[in-house]
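Q: How would the structure tokens look for this protein?
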Amino acid sequence: MQRKLAAILAADVVGYSRLMEIDEADTLVRLRSTRENMIDPKIAAHNGRVVKLMGDGELIEFPSVVDAVRCAVEIQQAMAECNEELPADKRLEFRIGVNLGDVIVEGPDIYGDGVNVATRLEELADPGGVLISGTAYDQVERKLDYGFDFLGERQVKNIEKLVRLYRIRLDHPRTAAAWTRGKSFRSRVWLSAAVAALVVAVGSVVFWSNSRAPPLELASRARMEFPLPDRPSIAVLPFTNMSGEAGQQHLADGMTDSLITDLSKSAGLFVVARNSTFAYQGRQVTVSQVAEELGVRYILEGSIQRAGDRLRVNAQLVDAFSGGHVWADRFDGNAADIFGVQDAFVTQIVDALKVSLTGNERMEITRGRTDSLRAKEAFDEGWSLYLRFNAKDNAAAVAPLRRAVELDPEYGRAYAALALVYFRIEDYAWHEEVLFKDDDYDWNQQYGAPPRVAMYRAFEHLENATRYPTALVYTAQALAHLRFGRAEDARRQAGRAIELAPNDPEAQIAMAWALTTSGKPSEALYFVQKAVRFNPNSPSHYVLAHGVALFAANDLGQAADVFDEGAKKNPNATALMPPFASVLASLGRRGEARRKLLVWRPGTDQAALEDLARDYKFPIRWAPEYKRVRERLLDGVRAAALPLDVTVSSLTAELKRGDSASRQIAAKRLGWFGPSAAEAVPALVMLLGDSGVREEVVQTLKKIGPGAKAAIPTLVEMENDKFIGGHAKEALTEIRGY
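A: Here is the predicted structure in token form.
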């Protein structure tokens, strides 16, 4: 038999039998709503455990009698506020008794004198009041600034010794002041929810035909849209801005983003990315719905209110399978302490989920972070714009990110984000969208940012970022290496980013690109899938990485489907159109391919479209030994831009007539069709003796590949040619397949 000392809170509803007799279903609905929206969150906030529910009664165990008494007072004062907004016949009142005493533990249940005294105190308490024992009073007298009335000693049923009784004066100025100071702003949210739920219950009770309230809808593994991870999985919903000012939304978003970022650095957790959880912002959703759609077990939600320098933050972690609160906490203090609050929340959450943070993970959580609230808000604004993957929003990201580094010159993540923004300006020819405001570049106000300035800025910010390294810095470095075909260097940097932030989907995407460009597209797809799993509502640059990896793996049909779905999801992501067009052209769907290019550059005439396709530069380069994949991608874009009446057959016919220049153009265009141009091989072989076109012909035969086997004898004869021999050897390698 195990015994222990515990703080016990016993509560029941005043006049419960009478209420049930008047309207049984209505009473049950209102009691359930009050427990869910008001009482249970307070129990969790004070580290309590519900031992049992007994109709209208509840028995709760606390590790601290201070927590037990404080919880009792807050419940009664919150109920009083709630009842003020309800008709007299719809009010619920509780009696509460609190005792500190010895209990017997048997599984999840407890019993003994400690429980019995608490139950007797509850029976003696006034409606809406709290009565505590002398043992409880002795512990809280000097720790809680409440008003107490000593009611003397009394014999209670089944207890041999007299029990000292103390009534907490809820109307006492000190008790009221403590409530005003200590109550969380979230409690008002719970109050509002409780009142709303009770009002709804009054009008909805006709829907309940049985004699009990409906069970809370819980998440189901069977309904999960993704397999549940093999470690604790969590989604952080956007914190509610309760300040009443739209300008404070960035503060609430920043708290959410910071918790996601910091929790993501634990390898022991699975954390859904910001982009996916923020999709629920402003929507009425249930915990079970979010859990099932994102494939996680735990949901973290909270609220934040700022009034001048004062800040109130509340958070709770809910188990979607049980509906219970795993953890809850609150903060009421100075806004300057917000970063300490975030650290405390992260530590408490991982502890609640029984996950241990390594020393490196704890170090990474604080590394590269800012102590400036304004800088953090600016970063969050800029990063959100960057993730939208279009020219206008990318340009808009510059100002807030630059403001972030001005406010905190040691903000590593902000420097890294700026580098990524400027890389995109160059990568996707978004120069006209950006106007520099610096005096050094005031001449550029009319024409936007020229490429050399964008690239200079990107590497300038990347260099600054490396002084304050974070996972995002290593991700940016990996992508910088990929601009020059340094796939192995990119893999090392992406690996470092994943090591520091194992839940960061951006790091996973960087690794996917590194593997795709090093000839391992199948392995790359694994990392793309991980990124999408971390971020189900993934931004469009994940689609680009996914589609190109499939293209590199020669899975053109699947690549087309991925690009099509991504384009429909985000029509503004026009940067997807050139590679999408390339895939479609490679599949022989040239009409569709052409339309995609016109989405990319609407209103372009034929000549200009061909020029754009010819000059198109895909931003990622493959390792030298795999550069042919990138060439295939670019050739597909060029083929997509050709007039639809230009076909392999028409180009083959062009090889047999016309002047040398026309034949050279025809041979070059045939190369853009790749293996689909195999029917032109005999005509191409005939031109290998023409010195004016043979170099272009050899390049086209190389692109046709194994379908050009008929050209092998002639190419073998050319291997030792002083001028064309090197190209002939490369063509033979591609045609033979080794």
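The first helix runs from residue 16 to 22.

The chain has five domains: 2-207, 221-362, 367-469, 539-644, 645-736.

Upvote if useful.
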